[in-house]
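Lab notebook, bench 4. Still working through the backlog of constructs that have no structural model yet. Next entry is a single chain of 391 residues. Request: give me the structure tokens for it.
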Amino acid sequence: MRALGLLALLILMPVTLPVPILRELVHERFGVSEALTSLFMSINMIGAFIAAPLAGILADRFGKRRELIVGALLVDGFCFIALPLVGDFSVFMAVRFVEGCAHILALSLLMALAATSQSDDKRGRAMGLVGAGLLLGVALGAPLGGALGNGSIVRPLHTGAGLLFLAAGLAAAWLRETGRERERPGFAEIVATVMAHRRVLVPLAFAFADRFTVGFYTTTLSLYLTRVHEATPGQIGALIAVFMLPFALLSYPFGRFAERYSLSLMLCGGSALYGIGTAFVGFSSIPVLFVLMPVIGVTAAVMFVPTMLMTTDLVPESVRTTALGAFNAAGSLGFIIGPLTGGIVSQVVADSHGWLAGYRAAFVVAGISELLCVAVAIPFLLRLRARGLTT
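Model written out:
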């Protein structure tokens, strides 16, 4: 179980390595708009949206999750090497698309191994440990990217490639199938089983909303801090880190907590507080953000593992990898739309009211989206609880 957590950390660190250098890597290098700069953080998620459910279906049908993870990590690493070498913006974005496909394949299958590595009464801690690794990787990637990115756009990307190659080697040496495998269903049976359990759409909606707002943190926040507050890459990386560190460190404790207490309450309560905090980001100075961001990180930790647990609880074990692929696909769709929405809202409002108003409007939209998800989901969660399908 600890090996899964370490691999999760190594796989996710490269995700936020480019965030502090986003303006230099995309906006200034290619001379494109804020919206197209934001698209850089979305285009790989388009690849992820396509690849995640396909990866889950293939794994549930054939197994071989270790081999698929290793291959995907190698492709991901070579994409990171290629990004600073490409001079054409269209080719640059195509490489980013492939990188997203490879990354989500490895991530989805690693999460599936975690979900089947423990008995049902201990899955919370397994998913919590992997979630902690994922989030700690994201948290550490941002300040590392900021430190490496001062004066260079190459070092963060080459470092990301090195981490992915290391993860591929460790995955080849450490990962094993869980030994809990059953007779594998066919493709048609997998699809039919998932479609018959449409209640899984409830946690998938939260996955979408959560990643939609995270898209604002990985893209709009960086652009906001550099344009309005003239923040350095180091400051941007530090702010993302103080948001992600409590998110990461509390995922395992909240994962164990979720084994005993209400998933619905943790999901809705954490999401509501997270949405409120997000809405205030654009109204905060940098010193205030260093207080607000850790608080938002704690609220995010409350809801993160319960979302994954509910996804696997609401489908049979034979299609859990597919369900987690759908979970990542929903999250990827949110991440596709999130940065684009942040870029469009901020640009449109800025054209008439200035950039400060534009970024404030963007984060208010992000916060309200989370609150709307909670409001819509509550009646469905109450029905699932009444039927004993979730807690």
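Notes after review: The mean pLDDT is 86. The two ends are 25 Å apart (CA to CA). Flag for follow-up if needed.
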